[in-house]
Design brief:
Helicase, Ruva Protein, domain 3, 2 domains, 12 helices, 45% helix
C-alpha cells in the first residue's frame, strides 16, 4: 500500500455536495446574483439551465442556504426518480410545519396552500427549489405549473426555482418556459475558476495550494472542458497518480497520463497532445503506467 506523502486530512475531491466543497466560480457567482434578484423583485419563477456535471445540484443546495440567510423559508426537492404522487408529500416534509399542521385531515395541496398563505401574511418568501425538473414525473410538472400560474394572493410571496439540462429545457411545458422571469445559464469554468477550485480544495484538507502546478491546472481545465464534475474526477485521479509516483507536485504530464489511462469517458473531446504543455523535456515512457493508490489519507 502506498501512503499519501502529503498528509491530507480528508479526501480533497470526493464530489460531495457539502457547503464547504462549493466553489464560487464565475458562473456560480452570476447565478446566485440573478437568484437574489428574483427574491428582491418578487418574481415567481426562475430556471437554472446547465449541462450534466455543471454543478446544478450543488448550486441548488447552496441556494437554500443563501435564501434562508435572506429570510426566506426555503425547501429543496430533487425530482429525479420520484414516483407519481410523491412530490407534494416530500415537499411538505421539507417545510417546517408544526405538528398540528401536519396532522390536519387536509389534502396535501391544501396544507401547502395554507403554508404559503401564512408566509405571505408574515411577508416572508417561500422558496421551493426543484432539482432535475426535466426528470420529474408528470404530476409534479403539473403541480409546478399550477404553482407558477396561480394568481391568488396566497401565492404572492412564492418563488419557484428549478434546474434542467438544455435538452430537458426544450421538453418543459410552454407555460413554464414562458413564465420564467429569467433563464440562468450555468456555463463551464474557465482556467482561473479551475485553478481556484483546486487550490481551495487542497487548502481545505491541509495541503499547500502549490500541489497542482499552473500547467497542471490549465491541463485539467482543457481536458475537462471546464465541467466541474469532470474537473473533480480528474483532480482526484491525478492526486492518486502523483502520490503513487511519489511526486511532490502534480504536473501536466501526470494529468495527461491520468486522462488517457484512468479517467472514465465523459463526453468531453480530448485535446490534441500538441496543446499540452509539460513541465520538463523528458520523453514519456513507452508504456506509461499510473499506479493506483489504495489509501490517500489515514
Amino acid at each position: 500500500m502506498v501512503r499519501d506523502p502529503w498528509n491530507f486530512s480528508a479526501a480533497a475531491f470526493d464530489g460531495s455536495l457539502e457547503p464547504a466543497t462549493f466553489h464560487l466560480g464565475g458562473p456560480q457567482e452570476e447565478a446566485l446574483a440573478r437568484i437574489e434578484w428574483l427574491v428582491d423583485d418578487r418574481q415567481r419563477l426562475g430556471l437554472v439551465v446547465g449541462a450534466e456535471g455543471s454543478g446544478k445540484s450543488h448550486l441548488a443546495a447552496m441556494v437554500i442556504r443563501r435564501l434562508a440567510g435572506l429570510g426566506a423559508e426555503a425547501a429543496l426537492l430533487s425530482l429525479r426518480g420520484l414516483s407519481s404522487g410523491d412530490w407534494i408529500e416530500m415537499l411538505l416534509e421539507r417545510l417546517p410545519l408544526d405538528a398540528q399542521s401536519r396532522s390536519e385531515p387536509l389534502r396535501p395541496w391544501q396544507k401547502l396552500e395554507n403554508r404559503l398563505r401564512e408566509n405571505t401574511l408574515m411577508e416572508r418568501t417561500t422558496a421551493c427549489v426543484f432539482d432535475d425538473l426535466d426528470h420529474a414525473p408528470a404530476d409534479a410538472v403539473e403541480g409546478i405549473v399550477r404553482l407558477v400560474s396561480a394568481a391568488e394572493p396566497r401565492f404572492a410571496r412564492l418563488l419557484v426555482l428549478a434546474t434542467s439540462t438544455p435538452a430537458g429545457f426544450a421538453r418543459l411545458p410552454v407555460t413554464i418556459r414562458q413564465r420564467a422571469a429569467v433563464r440562468i445559464e450555468l456555463g463551464p469554468w474557465g482556467e482561473d475558476d479551475v485553478a481556484g477550485f483546486l487550490a481551495a480544495a487542497i487548502r481545505r484538507v491541509g495541503g499547500g495550494e502549490e500541489r497542482f502546478s499552473p500547467q497542471a491546472a490549465a491541463t485539467i481545465a482543457r481536458f475537462a472542458g471546464g465541467v466541474p464534475r469532470t474537473v473533480c474526477q480528474l483532480a482526484r485521479l491525478s492526486v492518486v497518480a502523483a502520490a503513487g509516483d511519489g511526486l511532490e507536485q502534480i504536473d501536466a504530464a501526470t494529468v495527461e497520463r491520468v486522462w488517457r489511462e484512468l479517467a472514465p469517458p465523459c463526453g468531453v473531446e480530448q485535446p490534441q497532445k500538441k496543446a499540452i504543455e509539460v513541465e520538463d523535456d523528458r520523453p514519456p515512457p513507452a508504456n506509461p503506467q499510473v499506479r493506483v493508490v489504495r489509501r490517500l489519507w489515514g
